[in-house]
Amino acid sequence: MRLFIAIVPPEEVLDDLAEHVEPRRLADEQGASELRWTDRHQWHVTLAFLGEVAEWRLDDLSAAVATTAARHPAPLVRLAGAGAFPNPYAARVLFTDVEEVRGDLRRLASGIRTASNGSGATPDGTRFHAHVTLGRFRRPTEATRWIRAFEAYEGPVWRADEVAVVQSHLGEGRGRRPRYEVVATAPLASA
Predict the structure, then answer these.
(1) Which run of H or of E encompasses 147?
(2) Which one of the listed residues 20, 41, 131, 169 is annotated catalytic?
(3) Phi-psi bin for 74: left (phi > 0), alpha (psi -120 to 50), beta?
(4) Helix-strand-coil percent breakdown of the chain, rounded to 5?
(5) Is 44 among the residues known to form the active site?
(6) Is 131 an active-site residue?
(7) Mind giving me the DSSP string for 80-145?
(8) What distance in Å separates the CA atoms of residue 87 and residue 85, rounded to the nearest whole number?
(9) Nearest alpha-carbon partner for 188 in 77, 69, 46
(10) Which alpha helices (DSSP H) does 5-57 contain, by range?
(11) N or C: lower Cβ tally within 10 Å for the chain?
(12) Segment 78-100, tens digit of pLDDT
């Protein structure tokens, strides 16, 4: 199973982001599209990417994630601004940032990564940067105009009440994109 642990924004937050993204996506697709836009149902905040995990480890992983989540207060966050990975001048990924209004996503991600590793599901070693991927560039691209188009975005504040264990089914989504399936959820502690 190909798995990751994430926070999935609520529908009203996805609605707000979609309202901002849609006209820019449509304008891009009318020209020579630079981006392969991420579908709305794929928007999430990855806390830990685990890659391939043996199916028999899922119960232990879910239990470890639940125990850790219960120890971390549900943060108040909002989607705001924009950026690009690895940098704006050779961008491969366009994203909107996740702003912490109250709470500590880095600490939560660290706890989730430690718990995942302890259950035998080793997370990748990438540095945590809370974001939602909006699209992927077809080749390294100078992306400052895209960042400017999204940098003023500021979505509604929301409480991230739970984390999800998500299975990624490669090539099963629209246009051979991944299809995501939530296989377990765990509530975060009440503030």
Answers:
(1) helix 144-151
(2) 131
(3) beta
(4) 35, 40, 30
(5) yes
(6) yes
(7) EEEEEES-TTSEEEEEEEEEEEES-HHHHHHHHHHHHHHTT-PPP-PPP--EEEEEEEEEEE--HH
(8) 5
(9) 69
(10) 11-30
(11) C
(12) 999 999 999 999 999 999 999 99
CB proximity list for 36: less than 8 A, separation 6 or greater:
135, 136, 137, 138, 175
- Mean per-residue pLDDT over the chain, rounded: 91
- 84, with CB counted inside 10 A (0-12, 13-18, 19+), is buried
Helix (H, G, I), strand (E, B), or coil: what is residue 35? strand
Q: Which amino acid is at 164?
A: A
Provide the 8-state DSSP code for 38.
P
Catalytic-role residue among 20, 41, 44, 169: 44
pTM higher than 0.85 for the full model? yes
| DSSP-based three-state secondary structure for 65 | helix
Using DSSP bridges, classify how beta strands 2-7 and 162-169 pair: parallel, antiparallel or unpaired.
Answer: antiparallel
